[in-house]
């Protein structure tokens, strides 16, 4: 059951930004040596999907 | 006759206070960072940008239950994400500082790497004692967004490898431009210095004097 007071866009975007920020932080401090040339586009695709999903609203029956 | 049920009170407008607060704090922090850079204090932007992105995410998740609209904060997060992705894809050194910088190493005192985040970096190698330095010397000069100018003494045994993620490179009258533009010029004779000069977005210029 969906919470009518919940801002899904904010929630989805928030989770995405936390994950993306953590990945970038780990990469920048050298803890995680991942190829962001690949991960960069993947992040953008995920962001696009997150925006689409976050924008969907549950309609009352 | 039954009386109509009273209408429910209109919902209180939800103020996105958290979004405004964070956006204000973020802008103020960037301002402080910029000011410190202007005063020649190195700010670790490499860490600051992802940390701010995480902060924005946390505030969005925490405030999501209130139903408040956080469009400004979401847009700020998107812009920051795109900047970080671009910075990684085209190798922008966010930690290199902002503005113009001129470096003029003398004798044998030379660093292995010089960088600038945004602006112009001029590296003058004319007073470097190429006969006395420990060879082979691998020098790297990088600019994120802007211009990189390296001045090399004429006839010096310097091998040049120049690269621009998006922009142009000019070495000895030859120019390449576009995406991933690069030029490689061998040293006259055996190379004592290998110079790797690159910009993310902008221009690399190697001048022989």
Topology at a glance:
The complex is a heterodimer of chains A (61) and B (209).
Chain A lengths: L7 H21 L7 H20 L6
Helix pairs in contact in A: 1-2
Chain B lengths: L16 H22 L6 H20 L6 H19 L11 E3 L9 E12 L12 E16 L5 E14 L2 E12 L7 E16 L1
Parallel strand pairs in B: 1-2, 2-3, 3-6, 4-6
Antiparallel strand pairs in B: 4-5
Helix pairs in contact in B: 1-2, 1-3, 2-3
Structural notes for this entry:
- The complex is a heterodimer of chains A (61) and B (209).
- With 61 residues, chain A is mainly alpha-helical.
- Chain A has a domain at 24-55.
- Chain A is built from two helices and no strands.
- Chain A has helices spanning 8-28, 36-55.
- The longest helix of chain A is centred in the first third of the chain and has 21 residues, at 8-28.
- Chain A is elongated, with a radius of gyration of 15 Å.
- Chain A starts with 7 loop residues before the first helix and ends in a 6-residue tail after the last helix.
- The model of chain A is unreliable at 57-61 (pLDDT under 50).
- Chain B folds into two domains: 17-89, no CATH class; 96-208, no CATH class.
- Chain B has three helices and six strands.
- In chain B, strands 1-2-3-6-4-5 form a six-stranded mixed sheet, with no helix packed on it.
- Chain B is elongated, with a radius of gyration of 25 Å.
- Chain B starts with 16 loop residues before the first helix and ends with a strand.
- The mean pLDDT of chain B is 80.
- Classes of the chains: A mainly alpha (61), B alpha/beta (209).
